[in-house]
Amino acid sequence: MTPIWMRTTHRAVEIGFILVLLFLGVVIVNESVRLGPTWGESGPQAGFFLFVLSIAMILGTLGVAYVNAYRTPDMRPFFEAPQEVEDLLKVGLPIIALVLLIPLLGMYVSAGVYLAFFMAWYGKFRWYSALAGGIILPVALWITLREGFNISMPMSAFYRSNILPF
C-alpha cells in the first residue's frame, strides 16, 4: 500500500496551507488587539504593525483561496518520489529544531547554530566556513537589529549571565 504522503494531492496541500495561514492570521490579530493595534500619542502601539501585517496575510490568503476555488484542481500527487519527502524533512526538521532552541539559546545564537549546522550538513561546506557563517550571522543580526534599529529579540542564557552581548 502506498503511504499517505505519496497519495496527498497538490489540491489537498493547498487547502491545508490556506487553513493554517488563516488560523495563524486570526491568532495574530487576537494578539495584536490584546497589545493595542492603534496609534498612540508617541506613535504606533505594540500591536499596530502586527495587526496590519496579519490583516494583509489574511486578505492574501483569502485571495489565494478565491483563485483556487475557480481554477481546475491540481490532483497530481504532491510528492512524486520518496526522495522528495526525504528532502523536505532534511530542510523542515532543522527548522523545527531552530524554533525549539530559541527559548533556550535566544534568537541570535540559535540562528548561528542553525546556519553553521545547515551549511556543514546540507550544504557540504567545510567546517571552518560553516563556523565562520555561524559566527558572522548572529553578530550581523545583533548589530543590525539591536544596535541599528533598537529591536530586541529573544536573548540567550549567555546574555543573562553576561557571557555574550546577545
UniProtKB/TrEMBL annotation:
Pfam families: TctB (PF07331). Keywords: Membrane, Transmembrane, Transmembrane helix. Residues 17-154 form the DUF1468 domain. The chain crosses the membrane at residues 12-29, 49-70, 91-121, 127-145. This is DUF1468 domain-containing protein. It comes from Mesorhizobium alhagi CCNWXJ12-2.
